[in-house]
């Protein structure tokens, strides 16, 4: 096992906890940035290119018939193939957190449409589900199993927000373990079915799941309810007969108490487990080999790499599978770095260079390696951990198309926890929902003064009815500090005067006294 340092070039602000990577034909794509996508890459999907130990990013595009895919952190991902031995595959993306910290219950199917040295095109489709649809969650896993010539998706674990009926002001945004139910999803018909198994008593999140044929092995994970890392090893077997599917669970000996671990595949039957945390205040520096043969699993300890002093003494670490026996690891950068949020990145290769030329392996892996958000659990689980993978030998990228971090706007000026005015009293540590439409962030409205800026609706003393009316109406709003200025700068509207037609003067009646006989024809001419 070898360890190699990699440096990020002008894009470290996007490498935040919870993002994912998609590997298409040996090329790795970044997905799930922390903020909303900007104009430099509206899709939020980037090609990761590593050359000469430097990482660069190139924006990718979506086809016109694609749905909108928000940047999701901590989702569950896996590959979907037409059959167990098919070379073509798509990615399934389920759940995760949006930049507003809302949880998603949607499921997307993402495929690569076209790729060349200048442009990369994806297609993303949202799949409609029916039946026992899994609730919105994050930190869970999804796998594909194959049985009797058919395939089905399996979702397990994760965390979600406390139900609305159970929320209090003090714990409004707290999270809980999802129920330990197993969900089967048939993508052909969009049907979901849930199974409650007696062997699964506690909810798990940030665990590792490895699938092979019709069997899934679930290892480790963290339980919020008990604040423990499960030492159990679960074996889920899915049978797909002509009728209803059958799911069985068996608890096996030889598990490992670990959370946020990383799994990479080194051969058709062998995997390597690295990283993670074994307790609240201790990283797990030991590596293990996982061997799957004849419907059996064996977990044995293997030689660990020569960890650097920075890795050994850091408080937290993070990483994800790169594919083909390689793992990308990272630790927070030192305060002396020019970029405060920069991280040190390492590539860990778990097999020899000659083995890297083997064909892509077909076994399915789903490793939820990202950790919880601050406040969710333990100190290590609250770390600045993100999910990352990359292919060291990517194709050449035109530097002119490389993503430039300087093009991005400063999100600190447009966030929810800004000081919007002199009278602003919104504090992230003490804020509680004020309007019925608020959940985990304060309602904001755009002031149209100058270039425009966002203000908190509560600081502007807006009633809920007025806020709803302004959000629905197509009118400009001016905050309390700019409303008087705006009125003074307004130019009086030009009044259009109607042109009045002059009226003809009325003729006065004339009284004539006739003293002599007059003909009637003469009288008519006289008064005409």
From TrEMBL:
<dbReference type="GO" id="GO:0008270">
    <property type="term" value="F:zinc ion binding"/>
</dbReference>
<dbReference type="InterPro" id="IPR025162">
    <property type="entry name" value="RAG2_PHD"/>
</dbReference>
<dbReference type="InterPro" id="IPR011011">
    <property type="entry name" value="Znf_FYVE_PHD"/>
</dbReference>
<dbReference type="GO" id="GO:0043565">
    <property type="term" value="F:sequence-specific DNA binding"/>
</dbReference>
<protein>
    <recommendedName>
        <fullName>V(D)J recombination-activating protein 2</fullName>
    </recommendedName>
</protein>
<dbReference type="InterPro" id="IPR011043">
    <property type="entry name" value="Gal_Oxase/kelch_b-propeller"/>
</dbReference>
<feature type="binding site">
    <location>
        <position position="482"/>
    </location>
    <ligand>
        <name>Zn(2+)</name>
    </ligand>
</feature>
<keyword id="KW-0863">Zinc-finger</keyword>
<dbReference type="GO" id="GO:0006325">
    <property type="term" value="P:chromatin organization"/>
</dbReference>
<dbReference type="GO" id="GO:0097519">
    <property type="term" value="C:DNA recombinase complex"/>
</dbReference>
<dbReference type="InterPro" id="IPR004321">
    <property type="entry name" value="RAG2"/>
</dbReference>
<feature type="binding site">
    <location>
        <position position="447"/>
    </location>
    <ligand>
        <name>Zn(2+)</name>
    </ligand>
</feature>
<feature type="binding site">
    <location>
        <position position="479"/>
    </location>
    <ligand>
        <name>Zn(2+)</name>
    </ligand>
</feature>
<keyword id="KW-0539">Nucleus</keyword>
<comment type="similarity">
    <text>Belongs to the RAG2 family.</text>
</comment>
<keyword id="KW-0233">DNA recombination</keyword>
<keyword id="KW-0156">Chromatin regulator</keyword>
<feature type="binding site">
    <location>
        <position position="456"/>
    </location>
    <ligand>
        <name>Zn(2+)</name>
    </ligand>
</feature>
<dbReference type="GO" id="GO:0005634">
    <property type="term" value="C:nucleus"/>
</dbReference>
<keyword id="KW-0479">Metal-binding</keyword>
<dbReference type="Pfam" id="PF03089">
    <property type="entry name" value="RAG2"/>
</dbReference>
<dbReference type="GO" id="GO:0033151">
    <property type="term" value="P:V(D)J recombination"/>
</dbReference>
<keyword id="KW-0862">Zinc</keyword>
<feature type="binding site">
    <location>
        <position position="420"/>
    </location>
    <ligand>
        <name>Zn(2+)</name>
    </ligand>
</feature>
<dbReference type="Pfam" id="PF13341">
    <property type="entry name" value="RAG2_PHD"/>
</dbReference>
<feature type="binding site">
    <location>
        <position position="424"/>
    </location>
    <ligand>
        <name>Zn(2+)</name>
    </ligand>
</feature>
<feature type="domain" description="Recombination activating protein 2 PHD">
    <location>
        <begin position="415"/>
        <end position="492"/>
    </location>
</feature>
<feature type="binding site">
    <location>
        <position position="453"/>
    </location>
    <ligand>
        <name>Zn(2+)</name>
    </ligand>
</feature>
<feature type="binding site">
    <location>
        <position position="459"/>
    </location>
    <ligand>
        <name>Zn(2+)</name>
    </ligand>
</feature>
<dbReference type="InterPro" id="IPR015915">
    <property type="entry name" value="Kelch-typ_b-propeller"/>
</dbReference>
């Amino acid at each position: 096992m070898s360890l190699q340092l990699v440096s990020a070039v002008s894009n470290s602000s996007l490498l935040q906890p919870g993002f994912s990577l998609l590997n298409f034909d040996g090329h790795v794509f970044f997905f799930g940035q922390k903020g909303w996508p900007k104009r430099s890459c509206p899709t939020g999907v980037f090609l990761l290119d590593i050359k000469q130990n430097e990482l660069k990013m190139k924006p990718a595009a979506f086809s016109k018939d694609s749905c909108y895919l928000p940047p999701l952190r901590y989702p569950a991902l896996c590959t979907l193939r037409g059959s167990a031995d098919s070379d073509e595959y798509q990615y399934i993306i389920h759940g995760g957190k949006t930049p507003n910290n809302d949880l998603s219950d949607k499921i997307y199917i993402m495929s690569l449409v076209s790729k060349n040295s200048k442009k990369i095109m994806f297609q993303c489709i949202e799949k409609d589900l029916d039946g026992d649809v899994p609730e919105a969650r994050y930190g869970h896993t999804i796998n594909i199993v194959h049985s009797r010539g058919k395939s089905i998706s399996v979702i397990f674990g994760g965390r979600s927000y406390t139900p609305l009926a159970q929320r209090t002001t003090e714990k409004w945004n707290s999270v809980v373990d999802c129920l330990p139910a197993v969900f089967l999803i048939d993508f052909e018909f969009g049907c979901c079915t849930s199974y409650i198994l007696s062997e699964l008593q506690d909810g798990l999140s940030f665990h590792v799941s490895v699938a092979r044929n019709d069997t899934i092995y679930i290892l480790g994970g963290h339980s919020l309810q008990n604040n423990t890392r499960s030492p159990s090893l679960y074996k889920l077997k899915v049978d797909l007969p002509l009728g209803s599917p059958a799911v069985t669970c068996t608890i096996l000996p030889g598990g490992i108490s670990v959370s946020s671990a990383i799994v990479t595949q080194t051969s058709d039957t062998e995997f390597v487990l690295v990283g993670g945390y074994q307790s609240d205040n201790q990283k797990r520096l030991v590596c293990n080999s996982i061997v799957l043969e004849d419907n059996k699993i064996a977990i044995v300890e293997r030689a660990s790499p020569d960890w650097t002093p920075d890795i050994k003494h850091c408080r937290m670490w993070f990483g994800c599978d790169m594919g083909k026996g390689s793992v990308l690891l990272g630790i927070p950068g030192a305060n002396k770095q020019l970029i405060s949020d920069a991280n040190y990145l390492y590539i860990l290769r778990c097999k020899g260079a000659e083995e890297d030329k083997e064909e892509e392996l077909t076994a399915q892996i789903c490793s939820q390696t990202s950790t919880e958000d601050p406040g969710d659990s333990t100190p290590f689980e609250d770390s600045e951990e993100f999910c990352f993978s990359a292919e060291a030998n990517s194709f050449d990228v035109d530097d002119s198309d490389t993503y430039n971090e300087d093009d991005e706007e400063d999100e600190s000026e447009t966030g929810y926890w800004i000081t919007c005015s002199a009278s602003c009293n919104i504090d992230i540590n003490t804020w509680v929902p004020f309007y019925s439409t608020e959940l985990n962030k304060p309602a904001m409205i755009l002031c149209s003064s100058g270039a425009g800026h966002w203000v908190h609706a509560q600081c502007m003393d807006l009633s809920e009815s007025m806020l709803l009316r302004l959000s629905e109406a197509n009118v400009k709003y001016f905050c309390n500090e700019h409303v008087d200025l705006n009125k003074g700068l307004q130019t009086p509207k030009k009044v259009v005067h109607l042109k009045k037609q002059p009226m003809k003067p009325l003729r006065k009646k004339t009284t004539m006294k006739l003293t002599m006989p007059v003909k009637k024809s003469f009288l008519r001419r006289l008064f005409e």
